[in-house]
């Protein structure tokens, strides 16, 4: 039988050189078996032997090799020198089993004791390409004696080699299936569970997986003592259930049963320089009978744990990319066959793949946590409470496979008791998408503060997205609601259309021009103005609510419209409450509908009745302040708010006087009666007033100081054609509200 796993020593080499070459050939075979195990039974490639060829020959040689077991933790052919008990080969090359390989050299006996044919690989050392090699006869003066074997070939050796080859193939197939199962896990629990389910009961009767607590992330250096926590165990039950199936085992179940050593410790502190630290530093799996493992296992599992004798325990350190992150203990019951030396290679492969998977899961979990925190901090902590509209919102991250996105919503108060409603979605799922979302949201808030029309806001957002990068694209819907006029103006940039739920229970998909997404560039956006009757509800959402792998966007929009209609039917003539309405909308999502994150914003339009609004135009002249005081007094008397007359007259006089000083066009004065009394004064001067401390010698500068002390709230907003200064006063107790 030709051996393609190791090169023959060159003629004339010394005995030591030939022995060293044979040992390196065996080490190469071990490396090939480990690489084949990592690739899996299906992972053949160019120049890579199939598992039933290379791996089978390695297992056959290992099975028929050394008569004595190697030292614990040592793989076959791990050293350069021959071990005790090796029989010398002709020319000085030593075999671990003391036997010559069949078919080696001219005149050497083949299996069954027959001499090898003259056309074998007798003289060409290292030829493994399968080409015929011309025979080379030995020099006449130095005859080649036949090799002597400590174990003469027997008629049954072929069956033993076939069985060994079959066992090697089974190991390789098991490693391939187990590593694939471990690699399927994304989070930490899935990876550890994959290791347990892959090894019990196929490889071991019980397993314990210990991981560092806390697990280090990336390059960070953990501080404090190294503590290992029992993350999960699994075992075959002592007695099967009535159906003969394996009973489920709870996570972190330390009880291994009486036959497997009883209870194990859940926490183990690794003492520096102790036996457990030395084993973890060595990385290589060890049998439980090894001296190092015998002293390390009580430190890990607890001194009272009774372990099976013989080679029925394997302690395998789990080393990630940078450091040891835990350990796995594989156990077999005393009534089961013991582990074989080749099983150390299997344990090493399982430990390596598990440790790398744990590293991957920890890094992914940290990145997902950072991105999710970044996403949530960029969303509004709480919604404002503007006059004439009630708001509710929801945000749901996507499934664990793609939980980070760029969806956002916002509600921005505007001058004149108006409110801007915004919802958008940055394309992509990454921390970059979340960062771009934050930039676009900030830009939208700044543009809203300038009181630009919705189409102009989208145009500037489009320019900002192009400045951020050529591939920075997003969809956005921007709407401005005026509670006094009961109208809403909407502009759309490639976003799903909003749905209006009317007071009578009818849900309507609003006809809004879709437009192009933000970031395309050179696109004109169009705005439409629609009625917003009192009691109606506007629902804004991102495409994650209505689109998924199992349904298209228009099917999802129709399902949303039907869900809103059904919810409104339950509450009869009254509109449904906003918070339960948002929950009902999210309940339409199925198990396969969480491919994208979801942002939802619902606005209930209450409006402001015309009887609760007083509006005047005043010429900018010296007598305007007195005229404003008289108009405000009459409005308060009509509303039954005489208690506020003195305060309102004083504050209105101060604000109007400041507006008249700089205005060139008529000044506007508006009073709104809702749950508060709001006064708004507008002029065409763009300079915003600033609160300052007036000196005793100053003639002015005290008006805003009085407003700041007496008003409940106040502010100033710049408009495209000027500014608005407003203040609010609390309603007196028992006063009628609008």
Automatic annotation (TrEMBL):
This is SpoIIE family protein phosphatase. The lineage of its organism: Bacteria, Bacillati, Actinomycetota, Actinomycetes, Kitasatosporales. Residues 26-40, 88-103 have a biased composition (Low complexity). Keywords: Hydrolase. PANTHER family: STAGE II SPORULATION PROTEIN E, STAGE II SPORULATION PROTEIN E-RELATED. It comes from Streptomyces halobius. Residues 15-25 have a biased composition (Basic and acidic residues). Residues 389-605 form the PPM-type phosphatase domain. Residues 1-165 are annotated as: Disordered. The keyword Hydrolase applies. Gene3D superfamilies: 3.30.450.40, Histidine kinase-like ATPase, C-terminal domain, PPM-type phosphatase domain. SMART domains: PP2C_SIG. CDD domains: HATPase_RsbW-like (cd16936). Residues 132-146 have a biased composition (Pro residues). The keyword Nucleotide-binding does not apply. InterPro entries: Bact_Sigma-Reg (IPR052016), GAF-like_dom_sf (IPR029016), HATPase_C_sf (IPR036890), HATPase_dom (IPR003594), PPM-type-like_dom_sf (IPR036457), PPM-type_phosphatase-like_dom (IPR001932).
């Amino acid at each position: 039988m030709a051996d393609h796993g190791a090169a023959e020593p060159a003629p004339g080499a010394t005995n030591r050189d030939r022995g060293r070459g044979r040992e390196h050939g065996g080490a190469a075979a071990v490396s090939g078996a480990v690489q084949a195990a990592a690739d899996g039974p299906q992972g053949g490639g160019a120049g890579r032997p199939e598992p039933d060829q290379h791996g089978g020959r390695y297992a056959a040689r290992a099975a028929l090799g050394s008569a004595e077991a190697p030292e614990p933790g040592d793989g076959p052919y791990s050293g350069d020198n021959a071990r005790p008990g090796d029989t010398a080969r002709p020319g000085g090359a030593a075999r671990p089993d003391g036997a010559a390989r069949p078919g080696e050299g001219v005149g050497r006996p083949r299996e069954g004791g027959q001499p090898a044919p003259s056309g074998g690989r007798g003289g060409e050392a290292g030829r493994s390409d399968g080409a015929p090699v011309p025979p080379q006869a030995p020099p006449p003066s130095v005859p080649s004696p036949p090799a002597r074997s400590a174990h003469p070939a027997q008629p049954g050796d072929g069956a033993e080699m076939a069985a060994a080859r079959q066992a090697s193939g089974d190991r390789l197939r098991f490693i391939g299936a187990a590593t694939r199962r471990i690699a399927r896990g994304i989070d930490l629990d899935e990876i550890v569970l994959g290791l347990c389910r892959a090894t019990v009961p196929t490889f071991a009767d019980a397993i314990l997986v210990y991981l560092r607590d806390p697990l280090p992330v990336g390059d960070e250096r953990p501080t404090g003592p190294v503590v290992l926590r029992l993350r999960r165990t699994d075992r075959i039950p002592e007695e099967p259930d009535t159906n003969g199936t394996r009973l489920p085992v709870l996570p972190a179940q330390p009880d291994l049963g009486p036959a497997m050593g009883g209870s194990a410790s859940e926490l183990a502190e690794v003492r520096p320089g102790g036996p457990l630290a030395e084993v973890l530093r060595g990385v290589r799996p060890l049998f439980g009978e090894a001296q190092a493992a015998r002293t390390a296992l009580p430190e890990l599992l607890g001194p009272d744990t009774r372990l099976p004798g013989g080679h029925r325990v394997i302690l395998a350190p789990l080393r990630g990319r940078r450091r040891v992150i835990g350990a796995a203990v594989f156990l077999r019951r005393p009534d089961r066959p013991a582990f074989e030396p080749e099983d150390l290679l299997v344990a090493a492969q399982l430990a390596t793949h598990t440790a790398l998977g744990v590293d991957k899961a920890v890094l992914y979990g940290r990145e997902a946590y950072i991105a999710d925190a970044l996403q949530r901090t960029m969303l509004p902590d709480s919604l404002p409470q503007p006059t004439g509209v009630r708001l509710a919102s929801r945000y749901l991250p996507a499934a664990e496979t793609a939980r980070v996105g760029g969806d956002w919503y916002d509600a921005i108060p505007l001058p004149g008791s108006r409110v801007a409603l915004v919802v958008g979605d940055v394309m992509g799922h990454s921390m970059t998408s979340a960062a771009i979302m934050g930039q676009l949201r900030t830009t939208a808030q700044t543009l809203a503060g300038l009181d630009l029309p919705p189409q102009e806001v989208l145009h500037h957002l489009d320019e900002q997205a192009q400045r951020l990068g050529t591939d920075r694209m997003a969809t956005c819907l921007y709407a401005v609601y005026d509670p006094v006029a009961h109208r809403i103006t909407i502009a759309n940039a490639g976003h799903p259309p909003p749905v209006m739920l009317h007071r009578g229970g009818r849900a309507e998909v609003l006809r809004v021009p879709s437009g192009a997404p933000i970031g395309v560039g050179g696109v004109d956006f169009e705005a439409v103005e629609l009625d917003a009757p009192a009691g109606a509800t506007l629902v804004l959402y991102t495409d994650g609510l209505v689109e998924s792998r199992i349904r298209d966007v228009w099917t999802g929009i129709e399902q949303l419209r039907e869900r809103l209609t059904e919810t409104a039917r339950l509450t009869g003539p009254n509109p449904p409450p906003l918070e339960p309405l948002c929950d009902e909308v999210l309940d339409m999502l199925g198990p396969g509908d969480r491919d994208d994150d979801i942002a939802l914003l619902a606005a209930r339009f209450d409006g402001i009745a015309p009887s609760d609004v007083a509006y005047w135009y005043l010429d900018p002249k010296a007598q305007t302040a007195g005229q404003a005081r008289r108009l405000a007094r009459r409005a308060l008397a009509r509303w039954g708010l005489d208690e506020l007359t003195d305060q309102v007259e004083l504050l209105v006089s101060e604000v109007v006087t400041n507006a008249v000083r700089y205005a060139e066009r008529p000044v506007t004065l508006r009073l709104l009666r809702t749950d508060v009394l709001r006064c708004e004064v507008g002029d065409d001067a763009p300079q915003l007033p600033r609160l300052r401390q007036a000196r005793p010698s100053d003639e002015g500068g005290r008006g805003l100081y009085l407003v700041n002390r007496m008003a409940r709230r106040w502010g100033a907003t710049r408009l495209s054609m000027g500014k608005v200064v407003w203040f609010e006063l609390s309603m007196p107790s028992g006063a009628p509200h609008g």
